Amino acid sequence: MKKKSVNRADMADMQLALKKTLDLFGGDSRDLLLFYLYKEHGISVYDPDNLSRKKIESAFSDLFGRGATILMEKFNSEMKSA
Predict the structure, then answer these.
(1) Torsion angle in degrees (nearest 10) through CA of 67, 4, 37, 12
(2) What gap in Å lies between CA 61 and CA 3, rounded to an integer?
(3) Predicted pLDDT at 77
(4) Phi–psi pair at 29, nearest 5 degrees
(5) How many other CB atoms are found less than 10 A from the CB of residue 18?
(6) Per-residue DSSP letters for 68-82?
(7) Does the chain have fewer CB atoms within 10 Å around its N or its C terminus?
(8) Are residues 6 and 17 in contact, defined by beta-carbon separation less than 8 angstroms?
(9) CB 74 within 8 A of CB 21
């Protein structure tokens, strides 16, 4: 199976969408989420080369369970507006 390539512009859009999605959380909560995403899932808003929609969705699902759907809707909305 061929892996779908993601270009730099798409990765930058994904990075911005993730940042805006995490902005739903303020201050310490946002910082803890950033730490969790990096430590447990290798996701960093500062390194767009390591982002994928699948990784983000999996991390949100692990952390928020059914609430992950709400965050993914926000993320998808931000991706469309990017």
Answers:
(1) -100
(2) 23
(3) 93
(4) -60, -45
(5) 23
(6) HHHHHHHHHHHHHH-
(7) N
(8) no
(9) yes
Residue 60: what pLDDT? 93
Domain boundaries, the chain: 8-81
Give CA–CA dist 44/49, Å, rounded.
9
Sign of CA dihedral 73, 66, 55, 41: positive
Do residues 13 and 24 touch, judged by C-beta distance below 8 A? no
Termini Cα distance of the chain: 29
| Contact assessment for residue 36 and residue 63, using Cβ atoms and an 8 Å cutoff | yes
pLDDT of residue 6: 62
- SS3 for 5? coil
Task: Give phi and psi for 41, each to the nearest 5.
Answer: -130, 0
